[in-house]
Amino acid sequence: MLKHSTRGAAKKLGISYETLAHYVAIGKVPAPEIVTVGGRVVHMWTDAEIEQVRQLLPKIANGRKTRYSKLREKQKAQTKTPVPRKTKKKK
User: Fold this and answer.
1) How many domains are contained in the chain?
2) Which end of the chain is more exposed for a tag (fewer CB within 10 A), N or C?
């Protein structure tokens, strides 16, 4: 059974190392086996764990909401009613 480091797992998933490490740190992705190698703590990922994370990735909400995306959500929520117009007075 082949095991990968977090960098190798991130490369197989197509995301950056920092992203995968952050997801593990905040608990969005379950942490794999932890091994101490030469005084360093290393997460060792199996192929099954990598596939499990691959299934979870589309469900993870990432990014932050800016004021513009919040504004777009408000505009979508508004109903599409016509705006009343003023009529012109004839002389």
Assistant:
1) 1
2) C
Could you tell me whether strands 3-4 and 40-46 are parallel, antiparallel, or unpaired per DSSP bridges?
Answer: antiparallel
For residue range 9-63, list pLDDT tens digits in order: 999 999 999 999 999 999 999 999 999 989 998 899 999 999 999 998 888 776 6
Q: Give the CATH number, domain containing residue 53.
A: 1.10.1660.10
Indicate whether 37 belongs to any domain.
Answer: yes
Domain around 26: 3-63
Composition of the chain by helix, strand, coil, percent to 5? 45, 15, 40
pTM, entire model:
0.64
Sheet holding 33-37, edge to edge: 3-4, 40-46, 33-37
